[in-house]
Design goal:
Rieske Iron-sulfur Protein; mainly beta; 3-stranded antiparallel beta sheet
């Protein structure tokens, strides 16, 4: 089991993430936002790629997360900002093991 989690850090309990919610957590010093929308989990960097504003102060709007600083809307599936697709969310790989979400951080 340990080998399958190599490079992954324990983050939050899956049950702590309810449908249509966001939860901010620090994973090995990195601020990461966990989102559950339409029964799917998204794990993203909490900083907007535009000006590093914290997404955790924003809101969810169907399949989008809306940045609280400038109302930029990013698609949770593609990661793209709707008006300028070259601005993209940073997604993190994750695994769920025994009800706990583990996140892989960049090397």
């Amino acid at each position: 089991m340990a080998d399958s989690l190599e490079g992954y850090y324990p983050a939050i309990e899956e049950k702590a993430l309810e449908e249509n919610t966001m939860k901010l957590a620090s994973v090995d010093g990195v601020k990461i936002l966990f989102i559950k929308q339409k029964n799917k989990i998204y794990v993203i960097d909490n900083r907007c790629p535009h000006q590093a504003c914290g997404f955790s102060g924003g809101k969810l709007d169907d399949e989008f997360i809306v940045c609280p600083c400038h109302d930029w809307r990013f698609n949770l599936e593609s990661g793209e900002y709707e008006a300028k697709p070259f601005y993209k969310l940073k997604f993190y790989e994750y695994k769920i093991v025994s009800g706990k979400i583990y996140v892989k951080l960049d090397d």
